Amino acid sequence: MSRTAIARRLAAGAGLLATALSIAPSALAADTTPPTEPGPLAVTANADGSVTATWAPSTDDVGVDHYEWNMWAGGPTPPRQSTAATTITVPGLTPSGYGVLSVWAVDAAGNRSLPAQWGRDPMVTARTYPTPKVPETPVVATPTPPASTPTPAASPLSGPASGITLLRTASRGGVGLTGTVAGRIEQDGAVSADVQLATATARLTAYGVFPVVAQLAYERLAVQGTATSSSFRGTATFGLRVRKATVLGLSIASGADCRATGTITAPLTGPGLATRALTMNGTYAIPSFANCGAGTGALTALLSGSGNVLTLSLGA
User: By the 8 A CB rule, do 5 and 71 touch?
Assistant: First the structure.
């Protein structure tokens, strides 16, 4: 090749090199400009405890490639997650919980924008946005309570009274009792009643041989106790007077006020209000007698002592 041809080729190569060198600084320069910050964030709370965030797209001199985000709710910083959309739904944040949502725009060269942030935490001070409104719970009107009604009156305990008493020395079964009752059962189950019983006839045996007929008056019989739907517990108190007593037709009680000394008390139990009438039974002791004339000792020996049984049924 002639020297002239070689010179021409060298000149052409130098020109191409000069041209390449002249465009390289602008065409081949690295992209270092980050996208603009996304946002502001618009965040709404969902009924299932998640939040949905939406933001305006970022701009970039080359172009936004994607967005990254994370939700910090205390503890270590969570890893960023990637999305190409401008709307995300973040689960697991309760309406009363706290957290900071950060969103970055990223271009193809990996340049990351400043974060757009939404926070719900008193400690968050930078770039926080208003807390989203949680759907309000409908207000249900509370009904106005009716005017207070009077406490129901106590239930009356009235009507017939009946029963039987088994005297330890009776020779012919029990002594039947009949009469009336007037009382009440309070709302708390307290029972109070006065029982009027007719004079009862008791047929007894003296010394295991002699038949005795006694006219007995159960006086001032009062019942106090507590009744529930399944039980009754209380006491009966009363006096016992002998109106007349005979042995083989001969009177052995001559006093007009022949009676047991002191008040007799009988602890009572029963099935409570489960039955129509209030029934109860218990045992009692009869004290010694006084004012019975010559028959005082005999009546005391015949009637006094424990082991007597009283059964009552009050009301219909």
Answer: no
d(CA 177, CA 278): 15
DSSP string, 101-156: EEEEEEETT--B-PPEEEEESTT--SS--PPPPPPPPPPPPPPPPPPPPPPPPPEE
pTM attached to this predicted model: 0.51
pLDDT digits (tens, 9 = 90+) for 161-202: 998 898 876 655 678 899 999 999 998 999 999 999 999 998
The string of DSSP codes covering 262-311 is: S-EEEEEEE-GGGSSSEEEEEEEEE--EES-GGGHHHHHHHH-EEEEEEE
Neighbours of 204 (CB within 10 A): 21
- Chain centroid to Cα 180, Å, comes to 44
Instruction: For residues 27 and 14, give the distance between their C-alpha atoms in angstroms, rounded to a whole number.
Output: 20
31 HSE (CA, 13 A, CB side): 14
Q: Is the peptide bond preceding residue 95 cis, with omega within 30 degrees of 0?
A: no
Does residue 183 contact residue 193 with C-beta atoms inside 8 Å?
Answer: yes
CA distance 131 to 155: 62
Nearest-CA neighbor of 261 among 222, 289, 299?
289
Measured in whole angstroms, the distance separating CA 284 from the mean position of its chain's CA atoms is 44
Q: The tokens of 314 are what?
A: 């009050």
Q: Contact, 189 vs 231, CB < 8 A?
A: no
Q: How many helices (H) and strands (E) would you count in the chain?
A: 2, 19
Tens of pLDDT, residues 102-149: 999 999 999 999 998 887 543 333 333 445 454 555 666 677 766 655
Rounded CA-CA distance 120/107 in Å is 29
What distance in Å separates the CA atoms of residue 178 and residue 295, rounded to the nearest whole number?
A: 27
